[in-house]
Automatic annotation (TrEMBL):
The keyword Kinase does not apply. InterPro entries: AA-permease/SLC12A_dom (IPR004841), Amino_acid_permease_CS (IPR004840). PROSITE patterns: AMINO_ACID_PERMEASE_1. Gene3D superfamilies: Amino acid/polyamine transporter I (1.20.1740.10). It is found in: Membrane. Residues 26-436 form the Amino acid permease/ SLC12A domain. This is Amino acid permease. Keywords: Amino-acid transport, Membrane, Transmembrane, Transmembrane helix, Transport. The chain crosses the membrane at residues 27-49, 55-73, 94-115, 135-153, 165-186, 211-233, 253-270, 290-309, 343-361, 367-392, 404-427, 439-455. It is a multi-pass membrane protein. The keyword RNA-binding does not apply. It comes from Streptomyces maoxianensis.
């Protein structure tokens, strides 16, 4: 399908459309690299410490859930590409209040995440250059990626393509070295066999409780895939682009995530304190005697953080622009110049930098409050995606079956299975003290947005009814 014949993103203003500068290679790498972040390279260490070798099962379970979510989102986005992605689908399937709620909640998540990633990247830089202020590095990164996103969308695509390529290359190299070591082929190493998998407490050393903690850690490590369906609306061939990106990303993500976890727990004793202190990838490379392992992985983690900053500024600006185009935000945010929503880029970047300043000024109250509010937002997004797919699939089959380029497997059974899985994750979060707090704060944010969205929806409907009555009275 050509760019001219592809369905136009319905949420874009006709008089100031977003550009179509992203190519298929950009989309494929955004889909693949968007999910490979610091959560995998560093954060997975806490999951391994809790679950032991059974972390492989935890990542497999959460990976299956994410694959189902992405298949559902891919089905809807291929049928109706839109820069607002699941926010647009929620508005179509449930109502304007739903699109408002999930859209602004996701925008808030991305903006806070930009600040967090900036802080993480700055800490790496100050480790290399002691004495330099962290805030200055954050400011520099913000300027770079704000500038990148203010320019043509193809610039964002190129940055993200090469960032993602480096991350994917690092993971592929790690897996290659790991497999050689497991087989005993790597010079200076002996095949470990199953000693680390079955020794020191067995495959599930901390029982089901440890597996639960590992499962929760793995679920949130997968966040970031949603960006590809936002970017698809600005690609040369939106329908084909999102369909191919979603299909190819799934098995690769399973390979990178589950495969790397399997390599790590096979080669390194799960109780090794270095797994948490240095991160599992550095601990594994150190264990194998790879020179300068720590610095190599620091470079990879820095790239992952900068990539995430770039992608999140992009995603936040497009979501804000889409919401405004649908009458669900300040009009100034929706202004598009040269195919780019530059006001939305600036506001999203400023909000992200404000979060960084709060981490210095009010680290124990306001900043923690922000972190807790975004703790479970991605799960809320996934639930909206599943509910929307249940509604819109029936509508598509009835009205436009030709648009079902990507189909959810075993519909509707697997959609209900995914919803049950999400509900189970919520229950597990409620059982843990730390994650229970996140549920409270995220729930408060989502409830507040839903109330505002519903009030706006009622007000707009009332205004429309009044205008219709006035028109009838004028005719009479």
């Amino acid at each position: 399908m050509s760019r001219t014949s592809a369905p136009a993103p319905v949420d874009q203003p006709v008089d100031a459309p977003l550009s179509h500068g992203l190519k298929q290679r950009h989309l494929s790498m955004i889909a693949l690299g968007g999910v490979i972040g610091a959560g995998l390279f560093v954060g997975s260490g806490a999951g391994i410490a809790a679950a032991g070798p059974s972390i492989v099962i935890a990542y497999a379970i959460s990976g299956l859930l994410v694959m189902l979510v992405m298949r559902m989102l891919g089905e809807m986005s291929a049928a109706n590409p839109a820069s607002g992605s699941f926010s647009v689908h929620a508005e179509r399937a449930i109502g304007p209040w739903a699109g408002f709620t999930v859209g602004w909640a996701f925008w808030f998540l991305l903006c806070v995440a930009v600040g967090l990633e900036g802080i993480g990247a700055a800490k790496i830089m100050t480790g290399w250059l002691p004495g330099t202020p962290e805030w200055a590095w954050v400011a520099l990164f913000m300027l770079v990626f704000c500038g990148t996103n203010l320019a043509a969308v193809k610039n964002f695509g190129e940055f993200e393509f090469w960032f993602a390529a480096l991350k994917v290359g690092a993971i592929a190299l790690f897996l290659g070295i790991g497999v050689l070591a497991i087989l005993g082929i790597l010079p200076g190493t002996d095949a470990p066999g199953t000693a680390n998998l079955t020794g020191d407490g067995g495959f599930m050393p901390n029982g089901s409780e440890g597996l639960v903690v590992g499962l929760l850690a793995s679920v949130f490590a997968y966040g970031g895939l949603e960006t590809v369906t936002i970017a698809a609306a600005e690609s040369e061939h939106p329908v084909q682009g999102v369909a191919k990106a979603v299909r190819t990303a799934m098995w690769r993500i399973a390979l990178f995530y589950i495969g790397s976890m399997a390599v790590i727990v096979t080669l390194v004793p799960w109780g090794d304190p270095k797994v948490v202190e240095k991160g599992p990838y550095v601990a594994t490379l150190d264990h194998l005697g790879i020179p300068a392992a720590g610095q190599i992985m620091n470079v990879v983690v820095l790239i992952a953080l900068l990539s995430a900053m770039n992608a999140n500024v992009y995603g936040a600006s497009r979501m804000a622009c889409s919401l405004v185009a649908r009458g669900q935000g300040p009009k100034a945010l929706g202004k598009v110049f040269g195919g780019v929503p530059r006001v939305a880029v600036l506001v999203s970047s400023v909000f992200g930098f404000s979060c960084v300043l709060l981490s210095y000024w009010r680290p124990n109250d306001v900043f923690m409050w922000l972190l807790n509010m975004i703790g479970a937002v991605i799960l809320v997004v996934w639930i909206f995606i599943a509910v929307c797919q249940l509604v819109l699939r029936r509508k598509l089959e009835r009205e436009s079956p030709d648009k079902l380029v990507v189909k959810m497997w075993l519909y509707p059974a697997l959609t209900w299975v995914a919803l049950a899985g999400m509900a189970a994750v919520f229950v597990l979060m409620a059982r843990e003290a730390d994650t229970r707090t996140q549920l409270y704060y995220t729930g408060g944010l989502v409830l507040a947005l839903a109330v505002v969205g519903y009030v706006r929806q009622v007000a707009v409907a009332a205004k429309g009814d009044a205008e219709a009555l006035d028109a009838e009275a004028g005719k009479g």
